[in-house]
Amino acid sequence: MANGASRARRRSGSPLALLRVTQRADPARLRTVVPASRAAAREVADGLAGERGKQLAAYEELLRQYARFSVELKRAHADRRPKDYDWAEWSAALVSASLVAPSDVAVAIDGFGRAIDPFLALVAGNTVEHPLTEEEFARASLEPAKAQLTLVNAIRRSRGKDQGPLPVWIGGSLANPEGWP
C-alpha cells in the first residue's frame, strides 16, 4: 500500500489520488480517514466560529458599555445627582473590540470613540450643580448616535449579513432628533 500511495502522490501530487489508492488498497482504512477529515473540518469551522464569536462578544460589550454610561449620565442629569460609572469598563471594552476587529470595523470603532470624546466633554461634568436639560443632552448625543450607527453597520458588513445596513440606530444612544433617520 505504501508503494502504491507513493506512486500516486508522485504522479499527481494530489491527496485525492492518494485517497483513491488507499480506497482500493484498504476500504477499512477509508472508513477511518473520512471521519477524521470531517472532524478536522469541524475543528476548523469551530475555530472560525469561535473567533467570530469573540468578535461579536467584544462588539456587544462595547455597545453595552456605551448604553450603560449614556443612560447613567442622562439619569444623573435628570436627577441632579452624581454620576456613577466605572470608566475603566468603557476603556477596556473599546480596547477589546479593537483587538479582534477587522480593519474596517476598527476604523469605525475609532470614529465611535472620537465621537464619544466631545459628548463626554459636554455631559460628564458636574451633574449636581450644572445638570443638562433633556434637550441639551439629546443634542450632545447626536454625533455619538451617528457614529454608533456607522459602527453597527460596519459590524454587520463584516459579519456577512444579507439584510443590508440599518437606516436608524436601535438602542444605546438617547438622541432622538426630528428628521434624522
Report on the structure:
The protein has 181 residues and is an all-alpha fold. The protein has a domain at 54-158. It has helices spanning 2-12, 15-25, 27-79, 87-100, 103-123, 134-158. Helix 1 packs antiparallel against helix 2, helix 4 runs antiparallel to helix 5 and helix 5 (103-123) runs antiparallel to helix 6. The longest helix has 53 residues, at 27-79. The termini are far apart. The model is unreliable at 8-12 and 14-23 (pLDDT under 50).
In short:
The chain has 181 residues and is mainly alpha-helical. It has a domain at 54-158. Helix content is 75%, strand content 0%.
Shape: elongated
Q: Work out the number of β strands.
A: 0
Q: SSE string, helix = H, strand = E?
A: HHHHHH
- Main sheet attributes: strand count, strand direction, barrel closure: none
Report, as a whole number of angstroms, the end-to-end distance. Answer: 68 Å
Helix content: over 70%
Radius of gyration: 27 Å
Mean pLDDT: 79
Poorly predicted residue ranges:
8-12, 14-23
Decide which structural class fits the backbone.
Answer: mainly alpha
Can you give keywords for this protein?
181 residues, mainly alpha, 0% strand
